[in-house]
Structure formats: structure tokens, C-alpha cells
Amino acid sequence: MLRMLLGEQPRHNNGLLEEAIESMVKTTRLLQKEMEKHQDPTHDFRKLEIWTRGLIVSLDELEQSWNAAKHFSQSVKSGYIDDMSIQEQGEYQRYVYFYKNGFIRVFSILDKLGTVLNELYDLHTSKVKAHFSYFTALRQFKFLKAHGELASELEAIKERYKIPLNTLRKRRNAEIHYMNSEMQDDLWQRHQGLSDKIELEDIDQHLEDLKQGVDMVCRSLAASYRYTNRIWAEKGVRV
């Protein structure tokens, strides 16, 4: 949708994004087959199908947010906010909007995945923390010594992206709890010299951190649903 509004060609899924989406789509088909077969009297299959479809939509929105942020960043040429024209300020604000939308969605999707994993594998994470995060659910795998193969893969993915994810988490926390995340840099610079012009943040690095966040989400989703599909196949549940 956003690509159309930006005058770009539609996205062709490939790489990590394609793998994640295809794994989730396969799960929805398996769930639909089980509902047809067993009528799903408890609505458990239907709930998981809805959650999984929601994750597919959320992942699409995350990738589009990253792409839109990158699109608008290309029109930002000034090194200082004070030197921007009105038009460039507008492009910068649009970049900031989609960049912030992106890093908030990274953690939103991970937490939704945590909810799905908690349901699929009876992790009882809510007994540890009522409003738990994805990372709390990951710790439950280890605590329960359950599904070690999946837990190890997800833990390895988390460690691989530890640095960019920590950066995004700090900006997400600042945005939600303290101040607009982009103003953190402004505040720090004002401490250095009240009369100095405010230098623009490293937009390329911020976009790279967000791209790493998108990749981490894709890998985590693909690993989770690939494992689930395999487990179900071993139990005779096939499309």
C-alpha cells in the first residue's frame, strides 16, 4: 500500500521476508485443515489462525514502514536541522514518523510472537508476568526445559542481533516513556553548547539498525513457524 502511495513498484517478497511469510501461510493452511476435520469446538485453532494472520499483516506493515523511512530519508541532504528548507523539514518529519513507527512495530511483533508461542507450547508465561514480553516467553522455554531445539535457535537469533536490538529498544523506551526519541540527540547536543546548531542524527545508521530489527523479526518468525509446521507434520497434520 505505501509503495503505491510513494509511486514505487509493488514489493516482491524474497529472502528472509519471503521465508517468514511462507512459513506463517503454511501454518494457517494447516489450521484451516484441522478446523475442517475437527470442527474446532474450542475455537483454539481459529484463535491461532487469526493471530498468525495478524502477524503476517504486522510484518508487512513493519517492512513497509522501514521502506517508507528509507524513501523519505533520501530527500534529507542538510547536516543541520537549522539549515533545512521548509520542504526538506517536511521530508525529514516524514522519515522520522515511519522510522519511529518501524522500531515500535519491531517489539510489537515480537511480543505478539511471544503470545503465540506461549499458547502453542503451554509455556504458562503469564504466571511469571501478567503482561509478558517475547523475551519473557523465551526464558520460559529454558526454565521449563521445553522444545530445546526451537529455544536454542531463537536464543541464537536474539544474540546475533543483540546490539541493534538494544539500540532500538532504548529509542522505543524513550519514545514511549520519556520524550520523542529523535529529541534525545537534540537534548544531548544542547548540553554541549546552547548556541550551537543542532546536527542531524546519523540517519543511515538509524535505518541500518531498523533493517537489522526487521531481519531479526523475520528470522524469529520463520524459525518459530517452521518448527511448528515440522512438529505438526510429524504428528500427521499436513496440508
From TrEMBL:
Domain of life: Bacteria
Alphabetized Pfam families for the sequence: HEPN_Cthe2314
InterPro entries noted in UniProt: HEPN_Cthe2314
Residue ranges of domain Cthe-2314-like HEPN in the record: 51-229
Protein name: Cthe-2314-like HEPN domain-containing protein
Lineage of origin: Bacteria, Bacillati, Bacillota, Bacilli, Bacillales
